[in-house]
Design goal:
With 221 residues, the chain is mainly alpha-helical. The protein contains nine helices and two strands, in the order ααααββααααα. The N and C termini lie far apart (52 Å). The relative contact order is 0.11.
């Protein structure tokens, strides 16, 4: 319930923050942005639990955060398919129909690559979400299950690349008027930097503890 309430409130605030946008783009960005926020929180919990032992109790939230992040990502994909490219899969990958040539032509390479990255992230996220349960852990075995779930890092960076394109690059095409910068650009940079900093700090702390332990064992011998 905590994650559901967080998702609903966060999506609502993101919708409100872009009241001047069209309905399709407001919902598209709101659910997409909230999805990456949930993934970031899931990625941050592990390092935080290594740095502050009292936060270990929040580890179970990683599963729910990941599952609801994927549900929001599915909603994000549905809005793009039905509202932006109107079920024309060629448009999803940067093609537009040219009436004079009577065929599809590539007009936006970046859009194609970004959506391919997003699609890969979504497919991988679905695998992670479907296996994020005790039944899958028992059926797959602990080692295989952990190997699959460690792919969260792949999901995270694919999502970061996908989001970065639409925040910083997509609307810079020479043949269109460049809109005002999206307010989410620098909060997104801060979010990614925070996760990376936490992971680095946790890795450093773990390495120091391991080194001190080896040094203590060597002295004891």
């Amino acid at each position: 319930m905590v994650v559901i309430v967080l998702s609903v409130l966060g999506t609502g605030l993101l919708l409100y923050s872009r009241a001047e946008w069209s309905a399709m783009h407001r919902w598209n960005r709101a659910v997409g942005d909230m999805s990456i926020v949930l993934v970031a929180l899931a990625m941050a919990i592990g390092p935080v639990s290594r740095l502050w032992r009292g936060s270990v109790r929040f580890l179970p939230y990683r599963r729910e955060l990941g599952i609801y992040a994927i549900l929001l990502a599915l909603a994000h994909a549905a809005i793009i398919l039905f509202g932006w490219v109107t079920l024309d899969l060629m448009r999803l990958f940067g093609f537009e129909f040219h009436p004079g040539l009577q065929r599809y032509v590539m007009v936006n390479h970046g859009f194609a690559l970004a959506n391919l990255i997003g699609l890969l992230a979504l497919l991988y996220g679905i695998i992670l979400a479907v296996t994020s349960n005790d039944y899958s852990q028992r059926r797959l075995g602990n080692n295989v299950w952990k190997f699959i779930q460690q792919g969260t890092y792949i999901l995270w960076w694919l999502t970061v690349l996908h989001t970065a394109y639409f925040l910083f690059l997509h609307f810079l095409d020479y043949h269109r008027q460049t809109p005002d910068p999206n307010w989410a650009q620098w909060p997104f940079v801060a979010l990614v930097a925070s996760v990376v900093a936490l992971q680095f700090a946790a890795s450093t702390a773990t390495w120091r503890k391991s080194r001190l332990k080896r040094t203590g064992m060597a002295k004891a011998e």
